[in-house]
Design a protein that fits this description.
The protein is mostly helical. The protein has 3 helices and no strands. The chain folds into 2 domains: 1-28; 31-82. It has helices at residues 14-27, 32-51, 55-78.
Amino acid sequence: MDINVLNPTTHVSGGQYVAFWQVLFATILQGFWARLFGVIFICLSAYFGIRRRSFQMFVIFFLCALSITFFAYPLAKLAGLL
């Protein structure tokens, strides 16, 4: 396998790549509490996955972190909070 396959700038232009990351960070994890809970859940998933070797708890905390990351902003907007 060629390592250049993993380079995203070989598939899209540099401007599109930068724009993608700017939009991603502008829309995901908006607000202090979302960032705080996201980091806490990621740390807990790493703790339970690595230290405690509890795959179930790792998955639960990782899914919580993903749900906060990707669904907190649209749900808050839908509820009229933003």
